[in-house]
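Changelog-adjacent note: as of this version, every example in the card shows the full chain rather than a window. The one below runs 317 residues end to end.
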Amino acid sequence: MADAPEDIRERAVARAAARTAKDFALADRLRDEITHAGWTVADVAGGFTLEPLAPPDPAGPDALRRKAGDVVSVLDQEPTADVSVQWVVEGWPEDVVRGIAAFRANQGDRVVQYVVADVTGTAPETYGEDVEVVGLEEGTGWAAARNAGLKRARGRLLFVVDGSVEPVGDVFGPLEAVLSDPGVGVAGPFGIVTADLREFDEAPSPGDCDAVEGYFMALRREMLATAGFFDEKFKWYRTADIEYSFRVKDTGARAVVVPVPITKHEHRMWFAATPQDRARLSKRNYYRFLDRWRDRWDLCVDPHPPKPHDHGLDHHH
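Full-length structure tokens:
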């Protein structure tokens, strides 16, 4: 725990007492006061931790909306939660509120940390008690926001999820089980396969796949040290999940489809974009993927490299 000022520690102690007394309104208010003072409080077994959000900024009410690169990482500290579940909010915060409630309803007796990287300026209290909100400046790209949230992860396992998914049962147990295998690097309910790195199709069955889709990706915390973070050139979300899955597979680990009870709602970012923007941004991100992985057939489950004269670049993911 960082050396927090005495008044911040007193508020954190008072907040813990309010939670014990089930006075969640008071606990929320104290948490917001701590946040606005530049600190984050996280509940752990036997107490709480306090960490600085960022250096003080006198810019006014938007001071807590900081650059993604200024977010303080806790990844050098020992994990204090079983799982960290993390979202990026670029709009439609109500979808994430729905997701948080659904994960909470199915977490059982696990210690779960909830983290929201928000680029919309939504009030932190919108997301509820015990959610760590990482407020980011307007214009922060998808991958940079995702990485900022991941730097705050305190769970042994990380669930990287989209606001469009809603658990309707135990999603924790099956993913914990598959990630207990050290040979599995990333897992999730939605996977894709490719034979030629040009066309991508839905994985036909559970088991090994070429990439886990970003609707719901699960990995061990230490994978961030091995495979790195998401490529921050991906300002838009599309294909960033494929690129990261290939980073994981390049470490020698596998990508695996694991069925879990989940409902997938409309993906708002996709349907909010015009057809022209979808095509333009998707193509740009696909070529970013190709820049690094175009010849890595060895990472595919069932590779069939195109013949030398085949220069087609169809991309349907």
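Structural remarks: The CA atoms of residues 105 and 121 lie 27 Å apart.
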